[in-house]
Amino acid sequence: MSLRYFDYYQQLEEKLRVEEPLMIQAGTWIAQRVAAGGRLQIFASRTLSGVAFEFWEQLPDIVPGKLIKNPADGIYEKLEGTGQAIIEQIETNPQDIFLLLSNEGRNPAIIELAQWIKEHEYPVIIVTGFDLSRSIKSQHSSGLRLFEIADLVLDNHAKLHDAVLTIPELDPSICGTASVSTMFLLQQMLYFIAQFLLKKEVPSD
C-alpha cells in the first residue's frame, strides 16, 4: 500500500515553501503592529474555524490576539448581510491588524467583514486557495472575492470541496489538505513574528 496522501502532501509542501517571502512579509507587518501596541485579530470561515481557534490558542504572550467568532458556527455565512453580526462584535485599537482564513473566499459574510476592515483602514492578510478563488464567482453582490480586498494573500492551495485524492470505486474525491496547509503557513509566519519581536529587530517597510 502506498502512502498517497503523504506523497501528495510532500509535493504540496514544496509549493508552500514558495510562499516564504509572503510569510516573512506577513510576519513583518504583524510584528510592526504588535510592537506599536496592536493585536492580531483572527476570523475564519466555517471550514477553517478549527484552524483559527487552534492557532489563536497557541499564540504566545508576546503576540496578543483576538479570535472573532463566526455567529451560529457559520451556517449563515452564505447569506448577504450576515457580515454585520460579525462586525458588531469587533473592538479595535488603531494598530490592530486582521488575519482572515477562507478556502474559497467568496461567501458574503467574510467579504462584508473584509470590506469593513478596509473602510476603517486596517491592514488585512488572508489565507485562501488562490487559484480556486480566482476560478469561481463571488456569492456577494459586489462580485468581489476575498483576495481582491486583501493587502497580502497567502495561498494554501485549497481545491474545490477540499478533496485531492481519487479512488476508482469511490465518488467523489476524498482527503483534504487545506486545514493542514493553512496551519503550516500560519505557524511559520508566527515563527517569523516571534523572531522579529524577541530580537527587537522588527523590519521597517
From TrEMBL:
Residues of the SIS domain: 30-203
Name of this protein: SIS domain-containing protein
Species of provenance: Candidatus Enterococcus courvalinii
